[in-house]
Amino acid sequence: MQELVAKNVAAKKERLNEAPVIEEEDTKEVNESEEAVASDYKHLDLKERETDRDFRDEESTRYIADKDANKYSKYTGGEKDREVVCYECDNVHYTLSGATSSQCPSCGAYISLKDYDIVGLWNSSIRTRGDVLVQKKGSVRNISVFCNDLTIEGDFQASADCSNVVTVRVSGKLPGQIKCKRLVIEKKVEVEFERPVSAEFVQIDGVVKGDLTCSGQLSVSSKGALIGDIKAKFVNIQPGGDLTGSLEIG
Ligand SMILES: [Zn+2]
């Protein structure tokens, strides 16, 4: 990195030294008018700034890449890939980030990594370590969904078991059982869970009616409200946020 910085400074100096030459050439072409000289300087300034930005971009990209390499190097010798948990035996392995399926190295089970983008009616079960998005015009009925992230923007009458985040972006009733790592109810959303929900973390920015079990932190923001029987390890209710019903902490 130091070498890179040194190079950049050297390159900058070189360009600065060149500047009067460029100015001379350019001004000859435009009969040495003062206006043209000024605008040429502006142009040079801009170039300098662009180079600075390019350099910063390069630096931050390199930093992210280094971080990723460190994160995964202990598993795969430095390849950048994604974590996959086997549905059958819970074994964790890593596969290339663009893969659409994988095979568990421990038990041999096939694991889908496909993402689903649901627009119409959907009624066949989903089991993937990819993400599921139920769009406004999507309707998911009477099935079980196993996935990583689930985002609900449409009709969702199914149960869900998600290894990461369930985000609810639309008001309505959710009749299925929901289990996830993190549950997020977005602003202005009013939702009713007809079956108990279990999550590690819960973030409520809208209005929720239902029974929740939260093994980590439950947060209710200033515009959020929660009505139901709640069990949580930690509770954080912002001023203005509301919690009605029974609350068991610990
Ligand atoms: Zn397995």
Number of strands: 20
Mean pLDDT: 79
Secondary-structure element series = HHEEEEEEEEEEEEEEEEEEEE
Alpha plus pi helix count: 2
Helical content, roughly?
25-40%
Unreliable residue runs: 1-33, 35-78
Q: DSSP strand (E) fraction? A: 35-45%
Counted up, domains total 3
Kindly provide the radius of gyration, computed on alpha-carbon positions and rounded to a whole number of angstroms: 27 Å
Largest sheet: 16 strands, parallel
Shape: globular
Distance between the termini: 48 Å
User: Which ligands, by name, code or SMILES, are bound?
Assistant: zinc ion
Classify the secondary structure makeup into a structural class. alpha/beta
Characterize the structure shown.
This protein has 250 residues and is an alpha/beta fold. It has 3 domains: 2-71; 80-113; 114-249, no CATH class. The chain is 28% helix and 42% strand. It has 2 helices and 20 strands. It has helices at 2-29, 34-76; strands at residues 81-85, 92-96, 101-103, 110-112, 116-118, 121-122, 126-127, 132-134, 139-147, 150-152, 155-162, 165-168, 172-174, 178-185, 190-193, 197-204, 207-209, 212-220, 225-237, 242-249. The strands form 3 sheets. The chain has a 16-stranded parallel β-sheet that branches. Strands 1-2 form a two-stranded antiparallel sheet. The protein has a two-stranded antiparallel ribbon with strand order 3-4. β3 and β4 (110-112) form a beta hairpin. Residues 1-33 and 35-78 have low confidence and may be disordered. Zinc ion binds at residues 86, 88-89, 91, 104, 106-107, 109.
